[in-house]
Every structure is written in C-alpha cells, then in structure tokens.
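Holo prediction. Input below; ligand is zinc ion.
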Amino acid sequence: MRKKSFLSYEAKLIIAILAVLLLIFLPIPLYDNIIEIKNDLFLFYEKNISHYPIWLQILPFILILSLVIAIKLIKKNRSKYVEDNFYNIKWTWDWHKNDITNLQCYCPICDEPLYYDDTTSKFTIEVSKIDFICDKCQKVMGSIANENNKLNSSQLVKKEIQRQIYRKLTQDKNLTK
Ligand SMILES: [Zn+2]
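Structure of the complex:
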C-alpha cells in the first residue's frame, strides 16, 4: 500500500517560503553561527588530529584520491576492451557501466557477421552445442557447448561470452599486480 504523504506539495512550499522569510527578517545571528562552527572544527582539530605527524593527517586524503584515480583507470581500461577472440570467433561488444551490451560475432577470416545454428534442439531434448556459421566462407567457424538447457541459445551465448570477458579482465588485473 502506498503511504500518503504527510504534507502536500503546496503545504511544503508554503512552509519553505515561510522559513526563508523567517531567516531573512528574524534577527538570527547566522554569521556568528558559522564562526562558531569554524571555531569548533578548529578546536576539534587541535584536540584530536594535530598531534599526529603531518603525513598521517594527509594520508586519508591521498588514499581516497588514489582510490578514485584507480577506479577511473580501471573503468577506462575496461571501456577500451571491446574486442577479443573466443572459440575461434571474433567478438565485439560495448560497455554500459559494468554490463556488456551489443554483443556481436564475426568471422575471423572474412569479418562477416556470423549466424548461429542450434536446430538440433528441435530433434533432441538437449542441445549439445551451438555452431557459428559464416555464410561467405560456408563453414562452421566455432562452437559453444550447451550444458545448461534451461537457457535459450542467445542467452547461453551471451552468458558464456560474458564469462570469458570477465575472466580475462580479472586475469589481466592479476597480471598487472
Ligand atoms: Zn567468413
């Protein structure tokens, strides 16, 4: 069940306008408050942080900064990795954040898009493999074994190639360590 909002938008708007008017016309010492907060922060620093050596004070900022840079670099590397060979077939894809999209397969010889054939599934309950065929070369260029017959062919292909891509990514990461 949807909860009813406590206040309607109109009521919130009126309260916001009233609050702004109060802030402007009531003699609230806003500036003094800011100075007080600043003094409090400074006191907190003096009391708790300033006795540590300066490199230890800066360390958290450097750690956060290097983490951000590392994440950016990994993302950049990942977005450059959009092509590879698996099962003797050339695969291309796009990155959408961490997801692989627009997965395509091409003939390693003539670069023609391949189509896949799983017609055996019509005659047997289990599909043992999916063949990738090049029309131009008139040849099966590669096959992917189908061990999971719960998935349909395109799901299985996508899952299998994604697995290969992620495996390669983690391998590369381990190599650069
Ligand atoms: Zn071909």
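The chain is about 50% helix and 20% strand. That is the main takeaway for now.
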